[in-house]
Amino acid sequence: MLSKFIFNMGQQLRNPSIQKWFDFLKTSENWSIEELEVYQLEKLKELLSFAYENSDFYKRLFDDHNILLKDIQSLSDLSKIPTIEKQDLLQFNHEIHTQNTYKTLKATTSGSSGESLVFQREEATDSFNRASIFRGYSWYDVQPWDKNGYFWGFNFSWKQKLKTKILDVLQNRFRIFSYDKNSFEAFVNKLGTATYLHGYSSMIYQTAKLVNERNLAKPKHIKLVKGTSEKIFEKYQEEVKKAFGVPMVSEYGATESGIIAFECPEGNMHLNMEGVLVEEINHEIVVTNLQMKSFPIIRYKLGDYISLEKDDYQCNCGRAHKVLKEVTGRVGSNVYGKQEIYPSLYFYYIFKNLVKTYGLKLNYQVHQSKKGFLIFTIEQQLEAQDLIYLEKEIRKYFKNDVNFEIHSNQTLLSTKGKFKSFISKL
Ligand SMILES: [Zn+2]
């Protein structure tokens, strides 16, 4: 098959070790939780001693806190090491980088929530990460070189467009560039021969909605729809299933950490335990990247609120990898009342409660441009009773400290293609 050949050729150049990693991950996929944790501890010890010997930042951090490598003998001993944040990665960027002789590639975070971070990532790490994604695909009988539709930000310059086009051809990928009638319908036409779709969940949802509304021909061969980087509203699923025949599954990760979790066909997000150690501390994720030496990420507060399933939880799919129950919101985007400050996590609870108590599924976006005042924009049309429920839930969390307006039947806005459920101008 030509597409497979082209794909593998490109991969051979950029990621020579990927096949080795993929084979490893397909084996470890069947490991018991004990076997996975033995592997994690081994990788952790290796990482800590490497970081101590090769990174000025970690040497100083461990010395300042009297941490001896021999004191780390179990996964829970990790808690002896202090946590770090994005600010540390930016400020001590040079000192964190290790002395190395291996080939590295430049990695850049999107910077959609703050300053963009640049660091060197070795080939093995990049390949491990891709192999982790491909393992997720394999759960849906999808090959990475299968024809795929990609939903990412558009508005490129012509030069970027050309580069993008070349990379897309190499990966048998095509993407949506605009929602205007002609190019949108051409895109939907191509979906007819695609095997999988991936990208921003809000864009996948928009496309699904338009396909349904305009009664366009529905693609028949989609095996996987994968949403990344954004919240997947429950309401999305109805449209996505109707348009593409399968629900949207989520992949969770970050450039610094690598892939953290991938959803299995049973609907559970399994931690990528061979690649990351995940802790939940005060509802926040603290992550250690076990597969990167060029720029060690140890006990890093990624900035998301999460909740993990209980340790003894067993998924019906048979994989022993721990399960991430939910990513509930971003840390640090605060809501300002007249008197108090609240976490934006509250919005998550408000709308979750509406689903749980009243079966009311809403797509929302909250805007704040002055203290003590919020605008709730809701995509759906609200009935009088729905409005009462929503007002009641908002009051429950913000009391009278916040005045608000509710605008229903609205179009929710994305910034540079990316959707955020809370937009603050404060
Ligand atoms: Zn599972």
How would a textbook summarize the main sheet? 11 strands, mixed
Coarse structural class = alpha/beta
Distance between the termini: 54 Å
The name of the CATH topology of the largest domain is Rossmann fold
Give a count of the beta strands, DSSP E runs of length 2 or more.
21
- Figure out the total of helices: 13
What is the gyration radius calculated from CA atoms?
22 Å
- List the uncertain runs: none
**Beta content:** 15-25%
**CATH class of the largest domain, please?**
Alpha Beta
Mean pLDDT over the residues:
90
CATH superfamily of the largest domain: ANL, N-terminal domain
Unique bound compounds: zinc ion
* Count of distinct structural domains: 2
Binned, the helix content reads: 25-40%
